[in-house]
Amino acid sequence: MSFRFTLACVVVLLCLGAGSVALPSAQSAQAVKKGAAPKVGPVAPPTTDAAKIKSALAAGPAAVSKDATVMDMETMKVLRKGTNGWTCMPDGPSPGTDPMCLDKNAMEWAEAWMHHKDPPKDKMGFGYMLMGGSDASNTDPFATKPNSADRWIDTGPHVMIMNIGDHFAGYPTTATNTKVPYIMYPNTPYAHLMVPVK
Fold first, then answer.
1. Could you count the other beta carbons within 10 Å of the beta carbon of residue 56?
2. Half-sphere exposure of 82 toward its Cβ, with a 13 Å CA cutoff?
3. Backbone angles phi, psi at 188, to 5 degrees
4. How much is the pLDDT for 158?
5. How far, in Å, CA of 104 to CA of 189, rounded?
6. 20-33 confidence digits (pLDDT tens)
7. Assign residue 51 a region: left if phi > 0, alpha if psi is -120 to 50, beta otherwise?
8. Cα(60)–Cα(80) distance, rounded to whole angstroms?
9. CA 70, CA 35: separation in Å to the nearest integer?
10. pTM for the full model?
């Protein structure tokens, strides 16, 4: 079975199963009921450890987040030790609400990105951002705010597939339509597939 076929199956299953993904917060439940993504900012990130933990756990399905480690991405402080190999991080300083849960391989990708190093080769990573996210750029992995000609890129609830080299061929490389799968950071070592689930 080819890698591309396997990836296609993952994407199809995620899209077909999107309606059954449980969003674990009241805000996201209201958003789903109204048929809209969670509120897009500016949103003040949580400041207390308890609020950060609650924010982080909202990023993934309960089956993943309930036993995940919770880490503050800005300080790398572990707020709660987990047991299932997943790490969830609270909302950060961007206009939208954007906590995330990453598996072990995706955490290696994120650590490489944070230190401006190449991610490990051939270690596919998976992440949840079920509260959605805001990004300063679709092409610059290290942008902290959009350039004067751009705007924040807001993507609703989605999952991410990282570290699969050039197996993204055929997917859009722009964030013109964030309601369909697209590649973020194309032509960089941090290219990853964004797959909306709502």
1. 27
2. 24
3. -130, 165
4. 94
5. 18
6. 333 333 343 333 33
7. alpha
8. 16
9. 29
10. 0.76
Pick the closest to residue 137 from 190, 76, 88, 100 (CA basis).
190
Picking from 131, 115, 117, the residue whose alpha carbon sits closest to that of residue 55 is 131
- Computed on alpha carbons and rounded to an integer, the radius of gyration of the chain in Å comes to 16
Q: Give percent of the chain above pLDDT 70.
A: 79
Backbone dihedral angles phi then psi of residue 33, each to the nearest 5 degrees: -60, -40
Please count the other Cβ atoms lying within 10 Å of the Cβ belonging to residue 101. 27
| Pairing relationship of beta strands 69-72 and 87-89 according to DSSP bridges | parallel
- Separation in Å, CA 81 to CA 69, 86, 183: 5, 10, 32
Three-state DSSP at 36 gives coil
Task: Quick: pLDDT tens for 42-75.
Answer: 677 889 999 999 999 999 999 999 999 999 988 8
